[in-house]
Specification:
The complex is a heterodimer of chains A (99) and B (474). Helices cover 33% and strands 4% of the residues of chain A. By secondary structure, chain A is mostly helical. Chain A has a domain at 1-43: Histone, subunit A (Orthogonal Bundle), CATH 1.10.20. Chain B is built from 15 helices and eleven strands. Chain B has helices spanning 5-13, 19-37, 45-60, 103-110, 153-161, 177-183, 217-227, 270-285, 298-316, 335-346, 349-362, 367-388, 414-419, 422-430, 459-473, and strands at residues 40-43, 72-76, 114-119, 166-171, 186-189, 209-214, 257-261, 289-293, 394-398, 434-441, 447-454. The chains are: A mainly alpha (99), B alpha/beta (474). Chains A and B meet through helix 1 and helix 2 of A and helix 9, helix 10, helix 11, helix 12 and helix 13 of B.
């Protein structure tokens, strides 16, 4: 086994996912199969290879910044229009600090 | 609808028909046909008519109505449209109304394109069959009991069904080319950075592309022409000049060196292999020099891809937390419960699987073994192509090992589904332009696409090969 149910529960916590017991069982089986396939990468000696994080990492044309000029951002009303709960121009969330 | 960009332009300028009439007819037809496939999720009649009327006014005033004048276009529902619901195929965004337009959408509408509606897709573009949509699967118009491919299944289906002339999809690991192949249409993944990703809902940012679907190679070339080019809203968009793709399409590819990767012919369905071999024969008759090449890291590409894409996805999808994007679980008590319950209720099984996998490969103790290893293997996959393009002008091969499969046939085995992406993920990992062009049908009548790949920013060569092939195969 590449991954245990206990590890799946830990990863679900890190990912902020609430998995049911059935989901944990299924997820463990699925991830185990996929991770097993991923082990194939270890057949390759990559000790002398530089990691590639972006396609055109060496092309200077993509390393551009726009001119530092002021421009209009989204309005407050537009920015919070899709909020699950809002009020007074803010996103509202459950209380995180006790009085 | 059997229109092309050129036929619509000719009819409009000859005043045989107005853009408004085309838009009304297109909407009526698309709405009537849609229940067969479930390809559209949302129609945009008001927006379409406003755009069409603007084209008609320009024509009446003797102004140029733009390169896409009056052309009905469908947009994959992972690409945001201001004021028009954009769901990403997810319950999480069922009621999300974006406050801005994607750059690609702005450029299409400025070019006179008429946006008909938004197309169904796998949830957050994660899938190879369009069965992961929260709003039901899309059916393949060619064979209604089969999948259209994914994740841009709806955008491929509307072209095959004739309910749009052009459409936009997104491709992270094959999500444009594979459905194009399954539905018998043309689909293009441009060079990474050629089209701005601004407004494309992020799945795996280092791999995501926007690209066109159409019935002809020429139409995809025109649509890419409109969208391509630097956009200051996307720092990874390239400022390399955009050549005139269509002007280069003269059907003459004599002397072009075409590479055939040996690794792309293991494990193909028999009919698929035969059709790809026949396509290679046609290219040879067109005067191309066919050379066998090697892409030795192909077998490692799927593992590499699913590490990188899930890692990036787990980070990108962290934003759906019950605060900013419409959905919040009613079961939420504390902040932590709100995050967890909202994500549990909002995401489907495949999204959860990828978030879990991505979180795992990035987590402490596994980062080097999986994520860093995959980034190194990605460099080797890219190097395979760089070496190949030192010898050949373009590469051709299959898009998928098999044609469209039946709905439900592969849903229970995610690893097998991932492995079927083997011939498409490599192009995304390297960031090169690649496309699918129809190469005929199997004995069962199922379409098979020929994949054409070229070097970075060499879309012109890719289009020339696909266009010359299309001329002799249709």
């Amino acid at each position: 086994m590449k991954i245990s149910e206990q590890e799946v529960r830990r990863v679900a916590e890190l990912a902020n996912l609430a998995l049911t017991e059935d989901e944990v069982v299924r997820m463990t089986r699925d991830l185990d199969g996929i991770l097993g396939h991923m082990d194939k990468l270890n057949e390759l000696d990559t000790s002398a290879v530089e990691p590639m994080s972006q396609v055109l990492y060496d092309a200077e044309e993509t390393a551009t910044l726009r001119a530092d000029v002021e421009r209009k951002p989204l309005s407050n009303a537009d920015a919070i229009a899709n909020a699950a709960v809002s009020g007074q121009g803010y996103f509202k969330v459950p209380r995180v600090i006790e009085k | 609808m059997n229109h092309t960009i050129d036929s619509i332009r000719t009819d409009l300028l000859a005043k045989k028909v107005s853009a408004e009439e085309i838009a009304r007819e297109a909407l009526k037809f698309a709405e009537a046909e849609n229940p067969k496939t479930n390809a559209y999720l949302t129609f945009a009649p008001e927006r379409a008519l406003v755009a069409a009327q603007s084209v008609d006014r320009k024509i009446a005033a003797g102004e140029d109505p733009g390169p896409l004048a009056g052309v009905p276009i469908a947009i994959k529902d992972v690409i945001v449209t201001r004021g028009l619901r954009t769901t990403c195929g997810s319950r999480m965004l069922e009621n999300y109304i974006p406050p801005y337009d994607a750059t690609a959408v702005i450029r299409i509408e400025q070019a006179g394109g008429v946006l008909l509606g938004k197309t169904n897709c796998d949830e957050f573009a994660m899938g190879s069959s369009n069965e992961n949509s929260a709003f039901g699967p899309v059916r393949n118009p060619v064979a209604l009991d089969r999948v259209p491919g994914g994740s841009s299944g709806g955008s491929a289906a509307v072209i095959a069904q004739g309910t749009a002339v052009l459409s936009l999809g997104s491709d992270t690991g094959g999500s444009i080319r594979q459905p194009a192949s399954f539905c018998g249409v043309t689909g293009v993944t441009p060079t990474y950075g050629r089209v701005s990703r601004y407004g494309l809902t992020a799945f795996a940012s280092s791999l995501d592309h926007i690209g066109p679907f159409s019935r002809t190679v020429r139409d995809s070339a025109r649509l890419l022409q409109v969208m391509a080019g630097r956009d200051e809203m996307d720092s990874t968009s390239a400022s390399a000049p955009v050549p005139d793709y269509v002007a280069a399409l003269d059907g003459n590819i004599r002397g072009m060196k075409i590479g055939i990767p040996k690794e792309y012919f293991d494990g193909l369905a028999i009919d698929t292999g035969d059709l790809i071999q026949a396509a290679i024969g046609k290219l040879q008759k067109l005067g191309c020099e066919i050379r066998e090449i090697r892409l030795p890291h192909t077998a490692y590409a799927v593992g590499c891809y699913y590490i990188i894409c899930t890692a990036e996805a787990s980070s990108n999808l962290a934003r759906y937390d019950g605060v900013r994007y419409t959905t919040r679980s009613s079961a939420a008590g504390t902040l932590q419960e709100m995050y967890r319950q909202t994500r549990d209720e909002g995401f489907g099984a495949e999204c959860k699987r990828r978030i879990m996998l991505g979180t795992y490969v990035l987590s402490s103790g596994y980062y080097d073994a999986y994520y860093l290893k995959a980034q190194k293997v990605r460099a080797l996959v890219a190097q395979d192509y760089a070496q190949a393009f030192a010898q050949v002008d373009a590469i051709v091969g299959p898009v998928s090992p098999f044609p469209a499969f039946k709905l439900g046939e592969k849903v229970d085995d995610p690893t097998a589904m991932y492995l079927s992406d083997i011939y498409t993920v490599t192009g995304d990992l390297a960031g090169i332009p690649c496309m699918s062009v129809p190469a005929g049908k199997t004995a069962e009548g199922l379409p098979v696409g020929l994949q054409v790949l070229a070097n970075h920013f060499n879309e012109t060569t890719m289009f020339r090969v696909a266009d010359a092939f299309e001329r002799v195969s249709s």
